[in-house]
Write a structure and sequence with these properties.
By secondary structure, the protein is mainly alpha-helical. It has three helices and no strands.
């Protein structure tokens, strides 16, 4: 009987350790899944906000350029170039370079009289 009692006393902590290990794995799995889900939601939110901002910026640029094109239609070529130049100089989003010769906007610069 003493041997059975010692075995039972030794088995109880071992049984509790096994239960705690399984519970720990369960908690870890739930934590991992929740973390991944939150990261996915955050990435989707960031992507949605970025796409909305890009769409708004594109619409604003389109409206500005449409306005400039309509305004420049009834002006001489020199006045139109000056109007475009003033617009580009006042817009921070269009400030790419000053007097460059090898940027991707060289063709646009030559149309505006800037070589």
């Amino acid at each position: 009987m003493k041997k059975n009692k010692k075995t039972l006393i030794a088995a109880i902590p071992l049984f509790l350790i096994v239960i705690l290990v399984f519970a720990g794995f369960g908690v870890w799995k739930k934590y991992r899944d929740t973390l991944m889900q939150n990261q996915e939601e955050q990435m989707l939110l960031t992507t949605r906000i970025l796409s909305e901002n890009m769409a708004m910026s594109t619409e604003e640029y389109e409206e500005s350029l449409s306005f400039l094109a309509k305004t420049a239609e009834n002006r001489s070529q020199d006045e139109a170039k000056q109007l475009y130049r003033e617009f580009i100089d006042t817009q921070t989003s269009f400030r790419v370079c000053q007097g460059c010769t090898d940027c991707k906007f060289t063709a646009a610069h030559s149309k505006l009289g800037k070589e």
